[in-house]
Fold this protein.
Amino acid sequence: VPLGLAIALFFVINVLIPGYANLNSLLSLLLLSSLLGIAAVGQTLTIVIGGFDLSIPAVIGLSNVLFSLFYGAGWSAVAAIIFILALATLIGLANGFASRYLQLNPLVVTLASGSITFGAIWAGTHGAVAGSVPDWLVTMVSVIGKTGPIPLPGAVVLWAVVSVVILFLEPRTVLGRWIFAAGANPRAAELARVPMLFVWMSVYGLSAFLAGVAGILLAGFSGAADPTVGAAYLFTTVAAVVVGGTPLTGGRGGYGRTIAGSLVVTELSTLLVGLGLDQAAQQIFLGFLIVALVALYGREPHVSMRI
Amino acid sequence: VPADAQKYYGGYWYAGNVVADPFADWKPHPPPWQICHNDSYLGNSWRANLVAELKALTKQLADQGLAKPDLIVTNSNGDINLEVSQLKAQVAQGCDIIMSYPGSATGLCSGIKDAYNKGVLFVAIDSPVTCPEGLNVATNPYYRGQFGGEWIAKKLDGKGNVIVMNGQPGTANTVAQETGLRQTVASDPGMKVVGSLFGMWTGSVAKSEVLKFLATHPEPVAAVFSTGNMGGGVGQAFEQIRPARSDHHRGYEPLQPARVLEGEESDRVHLRPGRRADGLCGLHSGAAHDGRAEAEGSTIFMPLPIITADNFNDYYEPSMTLRSTCFANGKDLHLVPDEYFDQFFTGDQPRAQVKIVPTN
């Protein structure tokens, strides 16, 4: 259904906005969706295991700022990326550990770790963010960028690769099955000897890792560092997951739906801009849509009640 | 308002009050003064530089025996209720002069009145307050829009579509600026504002909004009015989706200013009000007149520094590239000469001498 909605919306935009159907518009849609889609991987999987990740915007901001600072200070891009993604993953692992081992509410844990992360950016830079980004990174997130012989921006290709990996991981690996088992019925999963701490730490680690990737891509996207660059991705990653049809109750759904959700959210905001509605109106519209979809999906009983 | 400065006050009522100086009979506390800064948000480099400069200026005033060496800083992180309570706390802890970047034109009024009643000078920087007891030092947002509209109309010979890239929706600053632009552009029947976008002062958001706009608006766009540090993102979006030069995405504000350094552009006007601590020199000076000086009104609007290819190197370092992140510093680090502020004050005491130092 969400994929059908994404395709239908594309045709609706074509009807409502003459001239929309062109290559650049399609590439813009894919590029913006890819940034959202990569950031939303973690939100999807944490929701599937019954958690939530409010630290995604802060981790995006951290990696965005650090990459520009490090590269501007003369680090090689590879060294900067490895360091930043390792740091981001550590934040995610800590989120998973605190949520599962210490039995703390993941909403509170990730809200707190996001606050700590953002505070650390502020304390470390005093808000004075400078630096630069390499040309290849700018090209990677450019509408007209190409990836070798593939006529698509690197970020879109990366999104495709990440999607394939996640779509393979979910049903075809032990970890994938553990993730859904942990979200469907945590008690039953424990009794079935699913290593719950490992699952939670893996999912939150992956979430932060990909939030870090999104932050680095966003550094190239605008060519500048900004600690608040991830702010928009809290609402939109949740919107992409919910619009895609993954229930907030956990145990069902998956990243395939979020891919469609990312496309729908980007298409909707594009349509609203095309119709002359500002960002406030977009937020109102998306807010209503989320409530409507949660009301729709939320009526289904939790998977644990159906076993 | 002094005659030479009146041109900067057009449409001021969209941005704030200009009333008689509420501190006309003010007797400042004896120096050294405790100077404080009350900020609504310190999460970006622009604000961080402002605080760094305030600290440096305060230190210089301290060296002259006029101020205590430490600047007391609060940050409400966007919470206007918290900002009011922080303001009242600053008054209670003995601040003599409070600089503020307020989060609202009206939301701090109770705190400002409290400060006024206790003889504490309150000066809003860049974002004017309408409270009668507050002083303002800023560039006039209506005038910014008006000036930009006139410049764009001139460059386009009065014909073409314009889009406006604002920061945050709903603020008095944004409304005043866009009103100034729209009213000016409306006088040219061949010009039309076809889009009003909000980039939230973030380059990537601005770029996303422009990409969506261009994808859904096939008509030509002749000019972009962009403020803040969003110009880079706006420029990239145009380059990527409409590289043909039939779209003259002329820069107004730092729309990839490094292009001038790289010799690609020479006809752009860049306005970078940037370092508003400049304006504080004037207010520090007024305070330093030891009560024998009186400001001529509640609001001082500053001229806009106009950066063109001719004076570009006075504002930007030659090392800046298209991938750099920075703000314009201004010639000798001043965007507005100190002397500009003299006309707003009476009295025969010399200005306190302070020197702006680089902080980034």
About this structure: Confidence is low (pLDDT under 50) at residues 245-293 of chain B. Chain B touches chain A through 50 residues (CB under 8 Å). The CA atoms of residues 238 and 249 of chain B lie 7 Å apart.
